[in-house]
Amino acid sequence: MNSGADSHVAHGRAAEQLAVEFVARQGYQVLDRNARGGRGELDIVARRGALLVFVEVKAHKRPESSLQAMTLRKQRRLLSAAEAWRMRHPALAGLQCRFDVIIVCPQTHQISHYEDAFRP
C-alpha cells in the first residue's frame, strides 16, 4: 500500500471540500464536482447569476507551485472538459464562462482564489 499516494489523495479531497465550502460562501451555486469529460476532469463547476465558473483546485504549500502547474496542456484539458460539460447541459449554454484556480494550503487551510486565471 502506498501511504504517500493515499496522503496526497486525502489532501486533495480535503482541499476540494474546503474549496466547495468557500465558493458557496461567496454566493456561488455548486452544480457539479469531479466531472469527467473531454480530455480532463473539472474539480468544481459553479454558477453565480449569468456566470458559469470552472474551478481547478490545487493543494500546495506555495501558491507559486500551483500556478506553475497550470501549464498550457493542463489548460487545454480543462477547456476540453468544460466544453464536454456544457454540451451535456444545454440549458446553461448561454452563460458566460470563466476559469478560476483555488489554491488550498493543506497545513493552514488558507485559501487563495484566482478568478479568471486563464482564458481559452
Short descriptors:
alpha+beta, Trna Endonuclease, Chain: A, domain 1, five-stranded mixed β-sheet, globular
Explain this structure.
The protein has 120 residues and is of the alpha+beta class. It has a single domain (3-118), classed as 3-Layer(aba) Sandwich (Trna Endonuclease, Chain: A, domain 1), CATH 3.40.1350. 38% of the residues lie in helices and 37% in strands. The protein contains 3 helices and 5 strands. The protein has helices spanning 3-25, 63-68, 72-88; strands at 29-37, 40-48, 51-59, 96-104, 111-118. Strand 2 (40-48) and strand 3 form a beta hairpin.
SSE-based structural type: alpha+beta
How would the global form be characterised? globular
Q: Give the mean pLDDT.
A: 88
The CATH architecture classification is 3-Layer(aba) Sandwich
Would you list the SSEs in sequence order as H and E? HEEEHHEE
Number of strands: 5
Rounded Rg: 14 Å
The order of strands across the largest sheet is 1-2-3-4-5
Helix percentage: 25-40%
Low-confidence stretches: none
The share of residues in extended strands comes to: 35-45%
Largest sheet geometry: 5 strands, mixed
Number of domains: 1
CATH class equals Alpha Beta
According to CATH, what is the topology?
Answer: Trna Endonuclease, Chain: A, domain 1
Output the number of helix runs.
Answer: 3
